[in-house]
């Protein structure tokens, strides 16, 4: 003969009880407010059944959230359950995105002769969001040093990173290069202009011309203007920076291995970033002859990253790819 008492889900278990039986498995069937409890339990109660033990989820000293872990809804719940009303977190980085080019018109405005829509500022702003930052989209800035300097002065104090597109190559109007190289600003101290300037040709294709600097102390990355180059450069250089600023401990792009279904050529001495689509379970193939066109990116599932010493990828070769989420 055993004794029983009524208990609701979540209530503390009296210390003389050693099991909990769901009401629908007793002769009472369901609790009715005010009705007397039927004293007869018709089931065998396996010992310890339906009792949640103290610390069975998390014990004192268990790790609930590792440093650098993303503050997901699940992590917030676990921390709250362990009694943490606040957590030390990294601020979501604010990233200014601006395009340079006097040929650019805002998206939605019909381009005249010699003009094109400023697609890069939308592309890069969306990439910043995907990377976990807040984009501050400045839009297009004409190719004059005065205009670019004024915009950089304006945004630098309010953001954690500035990303520009265009104006870093060898043209006559390569304005990012001009203002960073400081030819006109040799006398400006770093607090009023550029410092730590790198204007480089990176051994990659596309994306060869790149710039890195600080503007009035704020980090700045200058990407090439060609839209596919801008996208690939964002994935290679900017996304890891945004993730680092957001507090990720391992901000690098993960590469996964796939098998080339078709072969393609790769430039000697440059790391190739080629838009590819997934084929079958583990294959990839180039998206087509227009891989340097921005519309090709919409058909791509990943970017194949081919090392500089490889001049041709053959069918059946293993290639490493960055997946486009
Ligand atoms: N003499 C040389 N010319 C070029 C070289 C070189 O080494 N020597 N490099 C080539 C490479 S590689 C690239 S990439 C481009 C990059 O040059 P810039 O970063 O200075 O880019 P821009 O000339 O400003 O623009 C290139 C191309 O992309 C279009 N563009 C620019 N911004 C946008 C935007 N916001 N949205 C859409 N499209 C944009 C721009 O109109 C040009 O057609 O230089 C090569 N030349
Ligand atoms: O390397 Mo450029 O970046 O050819 O497109």
From TrEMBL:
InterPro entries: MoaB/Mog-like_dom_sf, MoaB/Mog_dom, MoeA-like, MoeA_C_domain_IV, MoeA_C_domain_IV_sf, MoeA_linker/N, MoeA_linker/N_sf. Transmembrane segments: none annotated. Its EC number is 2.10.1.1. Gene3D superfamilies: MoaB/Mog-like domain, MoeA, C-terminal, domain IV, Molybdopterin biosynthesis moea protein, domain 2, Molybdopterin biosynthesis moea protein, domain 3. One of its GO terms (molecular function) is molybdopterin molybdotransferase activity. SMART domains: MoCF_biosynth. Pfam families: MoCF_biosynth, MoeA_C, MoeA_N. Its cofactor is Mg(2+). Catalyzes the insertion of molybdate into adenylated molybdopterin with the concomitant release of AMP. This is Molybdopterin molybdenumtransferase. The gene is moeA_2.
